[in-house]
Amino acid sequence: MSTETEFVSDALRFLQEIGADTSGVEAGTNLFDTGVLDSLGTLAFLDFLEQQMGEEIEVEALDIDSIATLHGAHRFVQGRTQV
Known about the structure:
By secondary structure, the chain is an all-alpha fold.
């Protein structure tokens, strides 16, 4: 399991790799409201989260607000991997 700092660093690197503008993005930045993630970027980010968790995310059951920030995404992944 990674710390939040490690997760945020990995997530920012991933977002940059898919072409997202991560300038000014911090752990609490809303990725949707700021336009960092569009619909295709969100799908790619969900894939990244699945890789972090080692399991598939059931999109129908996902509260998208829970992964709107990198802080929230880390908590989501940690909660799923500790079950």
